[in-house]
Amino acid sequence: MNYTFQFGVALDRLPDLLQGAILTLELGLLGFWGGALLGLLLASLKTYGGPLLRPLANAYVTFFTNTPALIQIYFIFWGLPDVGIVLSAFNSVLIGLTLNTGAYLCEIMRAGFLSVRRPELEAAETLGFSRWQQIWHVIVPHIAKTIYPALANYAVVLMLGTSMAMIFGVEELSGRAYNIASENYRHLEMFAIVAGIYVVLTLGASLLLALVGRVAFRVKAKVF
Amino acid sequence: MEWFLGQLARFYAPENLGLLWQSIGMTIALTFIGVGVGFVLAIVVAIVRQSPGWGMLPFRIAAIGFVEIFRRIPFLVVTYLVLFLIAAFVKGASLFLIAIVAICIYATAYLSEIIRGGIESVPRQQVEAATVMNFTRWQTLWHVIFPQSIPVILPPAVAFMIAFIKDTSLVSQIGVFELSFRGKELVNQGMSGLFVFGMIAVIYFCLSYPLTRFGRWLEIRLATSRSQGPERQLR
């Protein structure tokens, strides 16, 4: 009924939490780049894969986008040991998030592939562009501009998604908060502080990504 | 193969079936109630955010703050915050209620952005025409803005709801008896994790995939009704 907030005790552990935040960023970045590579591969297979590989890529994307990431990681962490593959909690989470991210990013990248229209390539050919010049000056800028906002958005979503790692005992931001809270019993304060750190982190990431997008790809992105 | 059949028989054993149904029902209930209530609240938040005048300024700031903050906190952290907040002030609140509150908060924040996008997609001239014809603010909203923004709002809102079927798996962490919680329970009872989580994934897939197809159908259908040309259909 009457709860006394004690933020002082909780704030003392801020350095520990910030260490956790570094792990969150690490997990997010590794997962994103791994997922981006996987997504690029899947999107290429889906677009140019032919009758054999295309259904395979399709099945992968459909399955992974229609099941929870949590269950996928459960499967890796608690299922795979049955067949003799034992992975650490961090690796399980990273692999699970990468596989999941790959499926979502595939869809984004495919939309980018489709955005390059035939007449543009023909125009480039008429102007005497070589194959590499076409790729570098026409295809890549076009795709990058189309998919950048969606990719940047997904990077932030993934950063929030990494909080799932706490379930497996990984000491990233929320996991560390939970463990500290079970020492000092200030659960509410710890999670309020963690929520604040997440807001600051993702806001910073969004601003940075919007800036990079504007400078590198001339994308006018909205942060809010 | 024998191993697989043994596990299958155990997973779908008559004494387990009741609990399995119950957990599936819980997942569906959490999604539909949470997102449903969230949708209604999101409409309110979106309207408040669009409201004019100085008198509404504090409410506008509150609405924007709510949306911007809760869209930047992981759902798991929101769940824990709600759990500890309610546990600190209300004794003996049910876990189901706590989960619903967390889902509502999260859904409200996300859906209100989707609804705002829908409202903003209505051309300004429409609103001006309504003002000229002496419509009140509510009449404009009800007769002009809503009918035109629904085709824009519905597809992403349905997509959000489908995504939430999967995200509800996270509330198993606070002990709500839904599908992934049931899976963990079965593994703790000594079943193979490989089989159980594979099966649970298949069940989630069966819940989510038909709705995904429905969402895609809805999107194409609403897009053509707004006559955006054949280009959109091709995708």
Summarize the structure.
The complex is a heterodimer of chains A (224) and B (235). Chain A is built from nine helices and no strands.
Task: Describe, in plain words, how this protein is organized in 3D.
Chain A contains 9 helices and no strands. By secondary structure, chain A is mainly α. Helix content of chain A is 79%, strand content 0%. Chain B is 79% helix and 0% strand. Chain B has helices at 2-11, 14-50, 57-70, 75-89, 95-120, 124-132, 137-167, 179-188, 193-225. In chain B, helix 2 (14-50) runs antiparallel to helix 7. Chain B starts with a helix and ends in a 10-residue tail after the last helix.
From the structure above, extract its key features.
heterodimer, A: 224 residues, mainly alpha, 0% strand, flat, B: 235 residues, 9 helices, elongated
Task: Give the helices and strands, then pairings.
The complex is a heterodimer of chains A (224) and B (235).
Chain A: H1 7-11, H2 14-48, H3 50-65, H4 69-79, H5 89-115, H6 118-126, H7 131-161, H8 173-184, H9 187-217
Helix pairs in contact in A: 2-3, 2-5, 2-7, 2-8, 3-5, 4-5, 5-7, 6-7, 7-9, 8-9
Chain B: H1 2-11, H2 14-50, H3 57-70, H4 75-89, H5 95-120, H6 124-132, H7 137-167, H8 179-188, H9 193-225
Helix pairs in contact in B: 2-3, 2-5, 2-7, 2-8, 3-5, 4-5, 5-7, 6-7, 7-9, 8-9
